[in-house]
Amino acid sequence: MSKISISSVKPRLSFWEIWNMSFGFLGIQFGFALQNANVSRIFETLGASKDELPILWLAAPVTGLLVQPIIGYYSDRTWHAKWGRRRPFFAIGAILATLALFGMPNSTVLWMAVIMLWLMDASINISMEPFRAFVGDMLPNEQRTSGFAMQSFFIGLGAIIASALPYIMTNWLGISNVSEGGGIPDSVKWSFYIGGVAYFTAVMWTVFKTEEYPPDDIDKLKEENASKGVFTGLKESFMGIFKMPKTMIQLSFVQFFSWFSLFAMWIYTTSAVTSHIYETSDTSSALYNEGADWVGICFAVYNGVAALVAFLLPLVARRISRRITHLLALFCGGIGLISIFFISDPILLLVAMVGVGIAWASILSMPYAMLSSILPADKMGYYMGVFNFFIVIPQIVAAGILGFMLKSFFGNVSVYALIIGGVSMLLAGLLCLIVQDNEDN
Predict the structure, then answer these.
(1) Over 80: is that where the pLDDT of 136 sits?
(2) How many CA atoms lie within 13 A of 132 on its CB side?
(3) Which residue, 297, 358, 290, 357, is CA-closest to 327?
């Protein structure tokens, strides 16, 4: 792959410049948080069984596997005099994701909801993938940890609001939490509508408030684009997994077990909390929907913790190193997930979510800070896309085996999926010890 040099001029940016370039993640996380907290609820409401949930969720990681490296590859090779390199992808993804968020809660049958999940996840990935490379494009190396921390802050803030929306709709605004016809409640529908508007508005703020640096060699960029077809781009994207730098390979193992754990949590927390703590599996009952709303509050709490911890992580990392900081954070998350098995009071779930929030903040920033410091600037989007294989592959594995494991070994008791997730996160923490970070350089 020939080199396309991005601008070598990278002055330090002000707080508000980093704020504006990261603000779009507030909207992106509205989409992801609504998806993570409510899709299992929607699937169960439309008739899915517990052991079917992982397979139905398979749409999300498979979409990421296909979309992320391709978008990363082509966003490296895009330049428009007015819209820049990454911002066209931000805008296109925002438009598509907004439409998908409006469509998802109006699904009337299970297959329709699965299709909407495909569309929603693909659209969100179109926006999100270039945002990771955006930090490497715009910030000098010494500001990148702060840049990813700012992204984590907006991810946390967006997820707090979005995760809590069904609870807010029901308990503050009096919108119905139970559908009389047995379908998706109005509280969930209005949450997705608000999320769609927030997604579009926040991403477009970044599009209009940030100017990108032009590549040093625009003519070479145009020449290479003209010489490469779509097939060549796809091939290079997926072959990148065999060309990863050593630190990237080491981090990929950490990512695998971290995201296996997260996917187990997103799929099974609603089912685990409603059956293990609220002791009901009747999706049409008020008690089930009360428990499902409380899961949204739990997700809001872990994301709120992540938003606060995001700004502490760079300070801790400077004292004890980035990899040890990540190890400790993952241990907090693993212990938090495992502790849910021993909880009977819904309020105590919020304590468990504190540990998950610490891990989430680190997962969203530390691996990327370590990775961006060893990647060539001209291939930042490409390698960020390849790195995301180790977000989606563990989710595909989880989707393939969690349902079978629960049905075969744990009597379809959902809370055991959270224990499996907790153990996986502890293992991810231990694997941080093998990572060679070049932060001293």
Answers:
(1) no
(2) 31
(3) 358
How far apart CA 165 and CA 188 sit, in angstroms, is 8
Tokens of 269: 């927390």
Tokens of 132: 């990771």
CA 332, 128, 384, 237 dihedral sign is positive
| Residues sharing a CB contact under 8 Å with residue 175, sequence separation 6 or more, in sequence order | 169, 186, 187, 190
Q: What CA–CA distance (Å, rounded) separates 304 from 163?
A: 10
**Candidate from 92-96, 282-286, 332-336 with smallest mean pLDDT:** 282-286
Domains defined for the chain, CATH in brackets: 15-434 (1.20.1250.20)
Is residue 95 within 8 Å of 200, Cβ to Cβ?
yes
Pairwise CA distance, residues 363 & 353, whole Å: 15
Distances (CA, A) of 254 to 232, 247, 298: 30, 11, 25
d(CA 12, CA 423) in angstroms, rounded, equals 40
Nearest-CA neighbor of 116 among 24, 189, 207, 200? 189
Q: 236: which residues sit within 8 A by CB, 6+ positions away? A: 1, 73, 382
C-alpha distances (whole Å) from 296 to each of 94, 124, 317 are 23, 20, 30
Q: 197 is written with which tokens?
A: 């508007």
- Whether pLDDT at 5 is above 50: no
Q: What is the CA radius of gyration of the chain?
A: 21
- Summarize pLDDT for 307-322 with one digit per residue, the tens: 888 888 889 988 999 9
- Kindly tell me the sign of the dihedral angle through the C-alpha atoms of 265, 268, 270, 276: negative
Longest dimension (CA), the chain: 64
Model pTM greater than 0.85?
no
